[in-house]
Design goal:
69% helix; mainly alpha
Length: 281
């Protein structure tokens, strides 16, 4: 179900709307922000970081977690985490807190539902909730923290437990950091520059702020939305979701659409100049 839904219904832009704000939410703990700042990939090579994250998600969501590609992607992420942990002894425990593995997967599984219901739109169906929970739980079992595999560690037992975990994680008393501010600012700018032409990049930054949420924006000090700008963003999102429901499914799977977009960008053309089969929504 996840493979068909993500592969043929979701535009790349919708996935990006989860990746960027989702990473800002993931780095609410200061240790996570420090690690992301240390690797510098989000600030110095944001397009490469975005592509690498997309490759992992395509393998997990479209190829599937039982596929060779899905398992290889999990193993690759484990190697990356372990290498960073070994290279950063001054940042102990950055890859050893189980919650830091649970939260990103819970966010990937539940964020679309939380966003749509917050806009007054229908949320995820019950069968898809079950599918997303099984997907997130299965991927969690494939991952490893610095001190060993996560296969026997706690993961929320169902959809409701996942949403409860996310709410509690977000409500913890986090403190602002310079690392969080630097990485969040870089991500917000890259999202706006990548997906919007120059006259609309301020809107792209507002969209990022809305998706990240007021509390996260305040934590990372990346500005806030006034009521008027928030209404514009909400109208854009609601209209986009309505149109997405009316449009037919894609004929080309998402990984091929992503690769096609990359080939267009490699020629020097804008990613908004027709490189994708169908623009957002």
């Amino acid at each position: 179900m996840i493979s068909l839904y993500v592969g043929y219904k979701i535009p790349e832009f919708a996935l990006a709307m989860t990746l960027y704000p989702g990473t800002m939410r993931m780095m609410q703990p200061g240790a996570t922000a420090a690690t992301l700042a240390h690797t510098a990939k989000l600030t110095t090579r944001p397009e490469r970081r975005y592509r690498d994250a997309n490759d992992l998600l395509m393998a997990w969501m479209v190829d599937g977690l039982s596929s060779g590609a899905g398992r290889a992607a999990a193993a690759r992420l484990n190697r990356i985490h372990l290498a960073i942990a070994r290279a950063t002894p001054h940042l102990p425990g950055n890859f050893d807190d189980t919650d830091d593995f649970v939260y990103p997967l819970v966010l990937l599984a539940t964020y679309g539902d939380r966003l749509q219901t917050s806009l007054g739109l229908p949320g995820t169906t019950e069968p898809m909730k079950t599918a997303w929970h099984r997907w997130a739980q299965t991927l969690f079992r494939l991952l490893e923290r610095e001190s060993g595999p996560l296969a026997d560690e706690y993961f929320p037992e169902d959809w409701d437990a996942m949403t409860e975990f996310a709410v509690k994680f977000d409500a913890r008393p986090y403190g602002p950091t310079e690392a969080g501010h630097a990485v969040a600012t870089a991500m917000m700018d890259h999202f706006a520059d990548r997906w919007f032409p120059a006259p609309f990049r301020a809107f792209g930054r507002d969209l990022t702020r809305y998706l990240a949420g007021e509390r996260v924006c305040r934590l990372h000090r990346i500005g806030r939305l006034g009521p008027r700008r928030e209404r514009v963003v909400r109208l854009f999102l609601k209209s986009s979701f309505h149109v997405l429901r009316l449009l037919p499914d894609y004929r080309t799977p998402l990984p091929e659409r992503v690769r096609r977009g990359g080939r267009v960008r490699a020629t020097g053309l804008s990613c908004r100049s027709g490189g994708r089969p169908r623009p957002w929504p």
